[in-house]
# Entry
Amino acid sequence: MASRSAVAPPALQSSRIRWGELVIKGMLALCALVSVATTVGILIALLQPAIDFFREISVVDFLTGSEWAPLFEPGSFGVRPLVYGTLAVTFVAIAVAVPFGLGSAIYLSEYAHRRTRKVLKPTLEILAGIPTVVFGYFALVFVTPWLRDIGIQVDIFNALAAGLVMGVMLIPTVASLSEDAMQAVPDALRHGAYALGGNRVHVATRVVVPAALSGIVASFVLAISRAIGETMIVLIAAGQQPTLTLDPRRTVETMTAFIAATGNGDVPRGSIEYKTIFAVGLTLFVATYAMNIVATRLVRRFREVYE
Amino acid sequence: MKQIAFRGVLLLSLSVALVTLGTLLFTVFQDGWGQLDKTLITGVNSSDPHQAGARPAILATIEMGLLLLAFVVPIGVGTAIYLEEYANKERWYNRLLEINIMNLAAVPSIVYGILGLAFLVRGLGLGRVLLAGAMILTLLVLPTVVIASREALRAVPNSIRQGAYALGATRWQVVWRQVLPAALPGIATGSILALSRAIGETAPLIMIGALTYIAFDPTLLGPFTALPVQIYDWISQSDQDYTLRAAGGIIVLLGILLVLNRVAIFVRNRYQKRW
Amino acid sequence: MRPLVITLTAALTAVVLAGCGGSGGGGGGNGLSGLIEADGSSTVGPFTSAAAQRFKQEQSGVNVTVGISGTGGGFERFCRGETDLSDASRPIKDEERAICEKNGIAYSEFLVANDGIAVVANKQNDWVDCLTVAQLKRIWEPGSKVKSWQDVDPSFPDEQLKLFGPGTDSGTFDFFTDKIVGEEGASRTDYSATENDNVTVRGVSGEKGGLGYFGLSYFEDNRSQLKDLKVNGGGGCVAPTRETVQAGTYTPLSRPLFIYAKTSSFKRPEVEAFIRFIIDHEVEIADAARFVPLTAAQLKLAKQELRQAAG
# Structure
């Protein structure tokens, strides 16, 4: 309800400070600072041992070397095979998650009955809840033999099976968030398009999707981030043999698999082998930061605001 | 003709996910259904796979799930509200905040484990307790909630806000009474996705001390385990009967997920609006 | 919105109150009570868990918890004083020992069971039955050029060798490389490594020409899918079985498993009772955990250590 102040003439700015508002703004900013604190914490946890690591192994060797075998005797510390492994798996995962996720979203939002949507959307979300361990085993035990059956020559551990399963796991992320974004597009836009003679395909692809683009692209970026950071599926199904290749049919090792395996293994803490975890972790962090800066700029450019 | 083809393509997309889900569930149920006995739910781990139970794990996972919701929804939505409704987008620090959150979504779960070990378990002196596990999971899925909530807030038509301001509402009143209820479905979706993921996580919990053998019920500040950790432990045993038991555990986990999700889905359905 | 917020807050309060129960240590009666924390190797974990389970039947007031942070992770915590017991699939390393000393943590080392490393091949590889240590070394050493079975022995067919094994962070890997190649960590890098031995089983059984290694129980539980290779450690070809490991004839791939106990923890009666229980019942526990019991000589050593630790 409109508050009635006594007699004061209309003014552009309130004549007294609303303390409540300031407090609320402060509390909300505090919430936002949690994420900042997390990043700072991660950086602190990663930087010190990583710096120690780079005192012994040169950064150049690390970034350009083509063999990753830090725990063997003698060790080699070129991180590129791990990076390639991550890229190979991520690429396959996104190639699955984006089209199928978006397609599912368009169907759910523009074509399905409300009742169907009420059932299908949560069903998809169950897919997101399956433990990643299960996905990993599924990739190894089902998908790899299936790939071989249909004639694709894959190694027993390979990036393709892991990527495919990871992609399916990410479909709910892309679909659910995109679909929410599309649902929020005002009906007025749709009706206007129909009134001008558009059919369902037109409305869906040329009106709704562009209007919801911000949310859709956000879901893509989230999916890519998740794909890069996923650990269990690749640990079980993609392999632990760092190979300098982008061919997804081969066995690879991703950065995350390496960190997980070494972090939970029998390597003595504090050794140079253990410090490799932090160096790899830092690389991952920096690389995704760069990617996200680019992505945020892109999103900002394409965002359409209605009203 | 194009209409039907397009619709067909969309249905195909949907079916990829559904078929995979179906296959997965079928395999899990095939192995696991026979394992659903009283011992699995009320007993503790054992060296005999047929007697192995997961009660401490089940209780811990439920507790962590609820704690997670309690932590991540206020903090995540609060962050989103700050970024969307209060922050001046031109300021560099707010832009940095945005990028920061996107970045945190890509950090591997194991790094959150390292973070938790260094700062929560050792730094704050919490020790290897359930609360620390819940806090780590919160940080892990916070980006998902923030990103989803932001999009939900953005999608609320501005006319709603303008109308409320015109009637003399303060910024917070606009947010709390108009924008937030309108954005609730999207926020609920983000929370569902976040909860789902967190409940299935293994690696960071092992790193901060989730156990594989614990014979008593976990408490907030005591030693703990989690259902996915127990499942992972069982799957890793050489005795194949443990793998079957793990399938039973997975069914229980999915059951817990369904129940926790139901709440959020209910919220979403009730508040879903079409403008 | 209001009713929703109220319901959720209520639910949460209920959870927190329920969770704020007492500490983990069970109460009284006239037996012992307390909490014993063990962490370390994921190989030895099941042994300690089996022991804990049986011990609980005797002393229901004592709670034992077991973690699997890995042998290295276990020692890190142990040498900070965070745990009472450390499970290990290898002896403590010098650098770890130094940290314990620096932090003033004294400990006792107990041998608790034996395990064998089985070398296995794909069931279809019927040309090979036994490999010598020298042959294994040539296959697994760093920079090895052995690509086909024929390179191993000219009488074998020219079938591509597909290698599987544990990851470099595993105690099994450390042990195998130490005994076969002669130096811990020294191995060729182009094989399919995996965290999880069940996955190695899959790998070897799924690839013709497959060859791999892991703990004995993984072979025993998957016997129908794998072919075990006898190992000739200088005294003839010996198959990996419980009997040969215990008799000591399966060399060099028999390894002892350890539990390290913090001396200050030992002063607590429940800890001493637990260790004593383990040593008294080691055959039964090893059996339940799919390991091989101690040899007579090892048992004597363990009892001696116990006497010393008990003071």
About this structure: Chain B has one domain: 36-271. Residues 55-86 of chain B form the longest helix (32 residues).
